[in-house]
Amino acid sequence: MVTTRLPSAGFSITIRIAVTADASSIGRLTTCVGEAGAVVTALDVVDSDPTQVVVDLTCDTADSAHADQVVKQLEDQDGVDVRKVSDRTFLLHLGGKIEVSSKVALRNRDELSRAYTPGVARVCMAIAENPADARRLTIKRNTVAVVSDGSAVLGLGNIGPAAAMPVMEGKAALFKRFGGVDAWPVVLDTQDTDEIVKIVKAIAPAYGGINLEDIAAPRCFEIEARLREQLDIPVFHDDQHGTAICVLAALTNALRVVGKRMEDVKVVVSGAGAAGTAIMKLLMRQGVGDIIAYDRKGALHRGMPGLNESMQWLADHTNKTNYSGDLPGAIVGADVFIGVSAPNLLTGDDIAKMADKSIVFAMANPDPEVDPREARKHAAVVATGRSDQPNQINNVLAFPGVFRGMLDASAEEFTEEMALAAARAIADVVGEDKLNPTVIIPSVFDPRVTPAVAAAIRAVVRGGPAPANPAAAPESELDQAPEGIF
Length: 486
What we know:
Blueprint: E1 8-20, H1 25-35, E2 39-48, E3 52-61, H2 64-75, E4 80-87, H3 88-93, H4 109-115, H5 120-129, H6 134-137, E5 143-148, H7 161-179, E6 182-187, H8 193-203, E7 209-212, H9 219-230, E8 235-237, H10 238-258, E9 266-270, H11 274-285, E10 290-295, E11 298-299, H12 309-317, H13 327-330, E12 336-339, H14 348-352, E13 359-362, H15 372-375, E14 381-384, H16 399-408, H17 416-430, H18 449-462, H19 477-480
Parallel strand pairs: 5-6, 5-7, 7-8, 9-10, 9-12, 12-13, 13-14
Antiparallel strand pairs: 1-3, 1-4, 2-3, 10-11
Keywords: Oxidoreductase
Protein name: Malate dehydrogenase
């Protein structure tokens, strides 16, 4: 039985196998894995003798059940002895993914006297006299708190703060790798809105920004709004704003590819939670023609009962025709489908009923709202959230650069103007001469992305145009030193 799901590096396993030492044994292993629907990515000889060969076979599978199936099919082969199976994702997480390291050497008494007592007391008093100097004289100027209550972790739901830690650690690692930002997980053992606001406000003095992560809607909207009012540092909910920025960037370029204008297109968005709501609001700010918001309750429309405040706002400001049917009906004649919801809601036949030169962003992970292979048979441009498919829409394109720019410019808040500027910067990195249906968004590893986004953010904060060379470094440490300190 071959899986219909797509293999992924997220479910990569390494299998240690002993096989008979004949000319065809290795080929039989790779054939067996391929027939099971997995993808062999490496095969290394570990040991051998005149009668057998021991190999480590690494392959990508679709999920844990598929991995078990692959191992079972290997075990059923004659002359095959499966000795050990290692899940490479779990191996990567052993002991956690991040650590603290010192920026200063402590090799002798003199260095210790400056970094700690007695010298540090002078720095403490300087900050006490002028609290604004904390941005320059402490880690605050480059440190972000990644805050979660574990109530909406990835697509896993309300799994709690401890189980959310691997995601928050990963987020911190991405901040460092792509933006040079020091971030730290802050997982909270409470899901009470008032308590979360109180805790984050209390820890804020140590941080230059707050990144809210995986907090369920609609509480996340209130938490973000209240923290923005009470703090003098930026508060950014990546599930909302990071996703919206990346979607707008990708859609900007997709529309360039198909030759349509934002103000002329009809968009259907599946998912009216944190991400979907932010996407729709940013698209409306950019002047999109019309949007139909679809959620578990159905297509949001005027007169629909039982809506929370956020959904009611969408019902009042979208869906010009007041459509109230199902999702397949909503996308008939639509130019764009954007999914931030659940897997396998649509088929290729549904996509075929969209407008000519349609655009499909199916971003549910790991399984999209529609199989991208089926969608490509009918849509002009297809994007997903998967790293193993073309046009990956990934928040890492946005949040490292957004925070890099806000920290560099000592921003006190995150604004919609910053979101629009960041989206333009990401879209423009591709360059119109490089655009095509499979390249509408830069790679997350494109080194131009973070500098371009950071430059755009700094320009918004400072009220000037983005520099011609977005990769130019921000001010030096001497430039950032407080007045009178050399």
